Amino acid sequence: MMRRTAVIAAGLALAFPAAAQQVGGGYVVQGTGFDGGAYSGEAQITLTSDVTCEIVWNTGGQISEGICMRSGNTFAAAYVLGGRAGMVIYTVNGDGSMQGSWTVAGSNGVGTETLYPN
Predict the structure, then answer these.
(1) Which of 18, 66, 100, 116 is disulfide-compatible with 28, CB 3.0–4.6 A?
(2) Is 118 helix (H, G, I), strand (E, B) or coil?
(3) Quick one: CA torsion of 61, 77, 113, 62, rounded to 10 degrees?
(4) Which of 62, 43, 51 has its CA nearest to residue 113?
(5) Residue 75 burial (CB count, 10 A)
(6) Sequential DSSP letters for 19-58
(7) Three-class SS of residue 96?
(8) Taking the model in full, what pTM does it have?
(9) What is the pLDDT of residue 22?
(10) Given phi > 0 = left and psi -120 to 50 = alpha, else beta, which region is 60?
């Protein structure tokens, strides 16, 4: 039993870098702002290592750039929007889409956002 558990754990450890790579590419963005108003756009995720990436959003003509990483089914990014730091945390779904919540430093609100792979 112990050997089987070790083999499964080793297999999972090897699978995570491959899973991290699956988030790279282009996405359609649909979200809501702090006031509940809808927005849309696109995002591009570029892998920079087995566990890290860069992300660029273009929503409503506004460009935002950040760093990101995936851990299991959680995908997180820190970014700058309008000169202020922000953070988003997504759950990676089985179909490759990501559903999350975001905020910006000093704000009392939370927005929602879903990324759909192109």
Answers:
(1) 116
(2) coil
(3) -10
(4) 43
(5) 23
(6) HHHTT-EEEEEEEE-TTS-EEEEEEEEEE-SSSEEEEEEE
(7) coil
(8) 0.81
(9) 77
(10) left
| Type of residue numbered 78 | A
Distance CA 83, CA 70 (A): 25
Task: Give 3-state DSSP helix, strand, coil % of the chain, rounded to 5.
Answer: 15, 55, 25
Q: How many CB atoms lie within 10 A of CB 90?
A: 22
Three-state secondary structure call for residue 1: coil
For residues 15-37, average pLDDT: 79
Look at residue 10 in the predicted model and tell me its pLDDT.
38
When comparing pLDDT for 117 and 14, which is higher? 117
What does DSSP assign to residue 83?
T
Quick one: pLDDT band at residue 60, thresholds 50, 70, 90?
Answer: confident
Give the C-alpha separation, 66 to 80, whole Å: 7
